[in-house]
Amino acid sequence: MYTHHPAQTHPDGVPFSRSTSSHDYQHVPRPVTAMSKQYAPGDYTAPHSHVRAQLLYATEGVMRVSTEHGVWILPPRRALLIPVGVVHEVHILSELSMRTVYIDAQVAAPYGSDCKVLEVSRLLRELILALLAEPIEYALAGRGDWLAHLILSELTAADTVPIAIPWPRDRRLVAVCSAIMNAPGSRRSIEDWAQDAGASARTLIRLFPKETGLHYRQWLQQVHLAEAFCRLDRGEGVAAIAYALGYASPSAFSAMFRRILGRTPQHYLSEWRAAD
């Protein structure tokens, strides 16, 4: 039995005394539970999995989540829905306030077996924060239970964001992809990367679709989109982002962005400012 103890709270209303161990949330007899935890830049969570699905989300800060199949970079307006049993690791890239949700396996089954990035609406954010102010084992048919069902409803309606960075297994390609992830704005060519990896450019070009399902340019664009969203969330302008990522002009960057996502970066900036 989990008991809520009133205590001093964070500015968003989350009690400081609430458990920060994910293990304490896996077998609670409730369909949805929520955990709050603070992380410092450079913190790392080793590969692990849960018996519940997890909505990995932070109200502040940026994290990089990795599985054997892909990598996702998550700013505050994005959350990663991780299915039951998927092994993942988390790198904290900046001061981070995690507000994560664990969902019962049966309840989460309709969400599918693949990780996916979701837009976190203002309503979903507030629902998660409100649930964190309730006891871990909240009363059934009470406020916590209503909040949990509203969270599930919002997750079902949430927009998915087609940004995922498929991850290879070939050691040469892993070395190249890791280097690109560490320097997403690099102007280096595939020939330059190939020389560092001890492979020919032709070999790398062949390996990208075989290992990741994407051609080199497509894979690189996914990295650029992930980095762009982090920069947009920090309030950087479109022109600054375009040049930081190696595009010849803001219009070239915006065209790539719109071709893949269907909306311009300016659209997202305007939408986010209106929501703040």
Automatic annotation (TrEMBL):
Q: What are the record keywords, sorted?
A: Activator, DNA-binding, Repressor, Transcription, Transcription regulation
Q: Where is this region: Disordered?
A: 1-26
Gene3D superfamilies (UniProt xref): Homeodomain-like, Jelly Rolls
Example of a GO MF term: sequence-specific DNA binding
Q: Does the keyword Kinase apply?
A: no
Alphabetized PANTHER family for the sequence: HTH-TYPE TRANSCRIPTIONAL REGULATOR NIMR, TRANSCRIPTIONAL REGULATOR-RELATED
Question: Can you name this protein?
Answer: Helix-turn-helix domain-containing protein
